[in-house]
Amino acid sequence: MVDTHNSYFPQSLFSLQGRIALVTGGGTGIGAMITRGFAAAGAKVYITGRRLSVLEKAASDWNQLSQGGQIIPLQMDATNKESILAAKKIIEQNDGKLHILVNNAGQVGPVSPFLEKPDAPERKDAESLGLGLFNESLEGWADLYAINTFSIFFVTNAFLGLLAKGSEDVKDYWSSVINITSISGHIKLAQNHFCYNSAKAAASHLSKMLASEIGLKKIPVRINTIAPGVYASEMTFDRITKEQVDMIGKGVAPVPMERDGTGEEMAGTALYLASRAGGYTTGQDIIIDGGYVAVNPAVV
């Protein structure tokens, strides 16, 4: 007998109709890709960031289409506790709950371009290399960890109560936290930025710890991560050509698929985790990178 239950149809399985979402760094790049995917699936999506004008433009561009869910700009600094709690208060007053949280806000931080230049003075000997790396900004490291790693811990915990409240809406349909990390947190190469890669590795492990501890405490909230490969963003380029893919990836082997990822692929992965389709998934790290990690030295 063929099961024709409506819940198997994509419009039901991947629907976010009636769901409330918050995407940090949702005005540009990967955050904007995910936001559009959620809104297209029917969600009401709050997008946050420090630059209100960027958020307002992203929301206006979508809302003018009058299709799917609404995108709402909400200024919030994900590294500032007062700002986080102020945003939480607004969502609590407006909706009283939250179903989806995407911790996407991030930056690149200190870089050492000489690592890929054999003739650079910093590559002359051990002393030169050591001091070249030592000269990276200590404050820059602290700032980068604050946005790429610390923010995941503090934003998630600030909204944990509202997320648990959202899990009460539909039996066995838990709220979802999706943390955007990077393949840079999985590979053993520095890619010219030790700080960024180590912060993303920390974010991945932090996510797994949160999933474990929250699960053990019987709190009905799922926590997963997405580790993207080469994607267009403010940290790379608005558009990435085939020739630029491996320049960005900086691997010892090129990306097998010979292209960057698309917005639809990013949104689709996030949509899986946020929807009923991914309702039994928690504590996982999904790598979407065109095969980069498969052919480069990595810890997975």
TrEMBL record:
- This protein's name: Short-chain dehydrogenase
Q: Which residues form a coiled coil?
A: none
| Source organism of the structure | Leucocoprinus leucothites
Keyword list (alphabetical) reads:
NADP, Oxidoreductase
Q: Which SUPFAM superfamilies match?
A: NAD(P)-binding Rossmann-fold domains
Name the InterPro entries on file.
Answer: NAD(P)-bd_dom_sf, Sc_DH/Rdtase_CS, SDR_fam, Sec_Metab_Biosynth_SDR
Please give the PROSITE patterns that the UniProt record associates with this protein.
Answer: ADH_SHORT
* UniProt cross-references to PANTHER family, sorted A to Z: 7-ALPHA-HYDROXYSTEROID DEHYDROGENASE (PTHR43618), SHORT CHAIN DEHYDROGENASE_REDUCTASE FAMILY (AFU_ORTHOLOGUE AFUA_7G04540) (PTHR43618:SF4)
Q: Pfam families, alphabetically?
A: adh_short_C2
To which protein family does this belong?
Belongs to the short-chain dehydrogenases/reductases (SDR) family.
Q: Name one GO molecular function term.
A: oxidoreductase activity
